[in-house]
Amino acid sequence: MPPWAISSDLKLRIPVLRHVQGLSIKQICEVLGIRKSLVYQTLQLYDKLPDVTDSNSCKLGRRRSLNYENINYIESHCYLHSSVFLDELQSQLLLRRH
Fold first, then answer.
1. For labelling alongside 77, which of 51, 62, 88, 90 has CA 20 to 30 A away?
2. Mean pLDDT, range 11-26, rounded to an integer
3. Within 13 Å, how many C-alpha atoms sit on residue 4's CB side?
4. Are 77 and 66 in contact (CB under 8 A)?
């Protein structure tokens, strides 16, 4: 199973099975139906961080080019000036950003 398909709930069970219930790596793999590499990676993350998911890993999707402030500006500008061209709106937004 690819690492992005593993739920955080399943990953949270790994440290409990290892440290609380004392299961071996092989037993954890059999119980949860996962590979040894995922168990080792999750336990390594759990030792470094208080969580089993790495929040510093790369995020999926594109970086946002507009923040909420920009979106609110566009909405209010379109509300006040209902007949505005896209190039005018873009230039106003660029002036406002810088």
1. 62
2. 92
3. 4
4. no
